[in-house]
Amino acid sequence: MDAEAGAAAAQQLPWRQHYRNLLLLAYQSFGVVYGDLSTSPLYVYKSTFSGRLRQYQDEQTVYGVLSLIFWTFTLVPLLKYVIIVLSADDNGEGGPFALYSLLCRHAKLSLIPNQQAADEELSTYYRDGFAAQHESSPWLRRFLEKHKIVKTGLLVVVLCAASMVIGDGVLTPAISVLSSMSGLQVRATGLQERSVVLLSCIVLVGLFSLQHRGTQKVAFMFAPIVIIWLFCIGGIGLYNIVHWNPNIYQAISPYYIVKFFRTTGTDGWIALGGILLSMTGSEAMFADLGHFTSASVRLAFITIIYPCLILQYMGQAAFLSKNMFHTRTSFYDSIPGPVFWPVFVVATLAAVVGSQAVISATFSIVKQCHALGCFPRVKIVHTSRWIHGQIYIPEINWILMVLCVAVTVAFGDTTLIGNAYG
Prior knowledge:
Elements: H1 2-32, H2 35-38, H3 44-48, H4 59-84, H5 96-106, H6 130-135, H7 138-146, H8 148-181, H9 184-187, H10 193-209, H11 215-244, H12 255-264, H13 266-270, H14 272-276, H15 282-287, H16 294-322, H17 330-333, H18 340-371, E1 381-382, E2 391-392, H19 394-411, H20 414-421
Antiparallel strand pairs: 1-2
Helix pairs in contact: 1-11, 1-16, 4-12, 4-16, 8-10, 8-18, 8-19, 8-20, 10-19, 11-16, 11-18
């Protein structure tokens, strides 16, 4: 019996190890992948109601905005990325260049001269069932291979996508940190904008100074902060729903989207730039895939990220539906007084962590660009012995820091940065 029990335990050990590694990577992903996405509630409503939408300060407008946020957050991060895009990795790597490399490996689409013929023979790049899918559309492959203009257009699209991710790496740290620090002005009313900008710059410099420690160490430091932050905003959102407007769940209906655009017209379409901020950092789920696994990223999103953020957006909308004149500082104003300062501290730390997602994504994108010959040679430091995709690029790190500080000083306001992002 003991021998049989030992054999059974030996067989179960790999599965236990697998699930332990899965949970560990899911835990680490909070500190790297989801920091940006989880801090969006700091500035989404403020940016959305910053323009002409201020003229429509009524409950139905808030319902329409919440409905737009809910369906945007459901269709893009959940449906597009978690369910579909995360399955399209290139041997564990994500991002636009990973998709391009995958296409070029199975069709003659590459215009970049460093493609090696041996790549086509690497069995590790093939998945079960891919051959059948590949043979099912030979006409599409022939069409793409025949027209050079299509190849050029595809490469241009990939380069633009990579540039946008890198641009996100500049704007996101600035807007996240500046949004969190602006919470000081809710209680310290005499604090000037210049002081907030200065504090934000100091925090940004500290963040980029930690990058050389590597993704794993940074993730272990940052993951608890994001998890605490998510439970905080989820709890506050639930409190606001119960306290201010228990019927806010009705805004999930797409009917309020139609009504929103009928009422606001062009002003509503312009406000979509603020709505899009609710999914900032979604691209990091795919771009940071080399640092983790698709299963771990999915697990973290479905179990904690999605429900906590939906509760927060609904709670903030419930507060705004009864306090429409608090749109500029809706997040901090909706926090119950006794817990304001603890939440502010966590928000500041979470904003710092939020920048980590796009910083790591930028490192991955630059590495892929360099591998395909589309980027100058840079020093790439591998920070993990077990996960090949965890890297640090010193030159890119310091360039990003300078650009983030410059954006923070130049704009000095989250609404302006949000407009640039949207």
